[in-house]
Design a protein that fits this description.
The structure is a homodimer. Chain A is an all-alpha fold. Chain A is 82% helix and 0% strand. Chain A contains two helices and no strands. Chain A starts with 5 loop residues before the first helix and ends with a helix. The relative contact order of chain A is 0.07. The mean pLDDT of chain A is 90. The A-B interface holds A 25, 28-29, 32-34, 36-37, 40-48, 53, 56-57, 59-61, 64 and B 35-36, 39-40, 55, 58-59, 61-63, 65-67, 69-71, 73-75, 77-78. Chain A: Heterohexamer; possibly composed of 3 copies of TIMM8B and 3 copies of TIMM13, named soluble 70 kDa complex. Associates with the TIM22 complex, whose core is composed of TIMM22.
Chain lengths: 83, 83
């Protein structure tokens, strides 16, 4: 493999880091898409009406709240179990 | 492994990229199929009636809209969280 100079090496690391972030973001998005599509879209119509848009926006927020609540409760249980 | 000349290397990269695109397209189609079958096809009948066909067509469009809405909301949250 070709040897990279310091500046090119740094640039490469930066690009790899950026791609990794993009991949993480996309991967995190996937569960939201599936779950919120299920909850909010009954029958696909001609466009997303405002009720559906609000539902999708709330869905993201509530799913994050749910994750926090469940994580918190589960952590409690695990800690108690450890004693 | 045999050493490829520059022209062959470029051609090879192009072929790999084309195959990756085809694979991505197929995976995306498969994903749409599952989601839109669930939403639009109640009980399979003798043929796809026009209501079902419209639903399937709208389904692809609305799922893309949904992806944009959720990506946008999620990006907002990530940005706020980063500050």
């Amino acid at each position: 493999m070709v040897e990279l100079g310091e500046a090119d090496e740094a640039e490469l690391q930066h690009l790899v880091g950026a791609e990794r972030q993009k991949a993480q973001f996309t991967a995190q998005l996937h569960p939201f898409l599936e779950l919120c599509w299920d909850k909010c879209v009954e029958k696909p119509g001609n466009r997303l009406d405002s009720r559906t848009e609000n539902c999708l926006s709330s869905c993201v927020d509530r799913f994050i709240d749910t994750t926090l609540a469940i994580t918190s409760r589960f952590a409690q249980i695990v800690q108690k179990g450890g004693q």
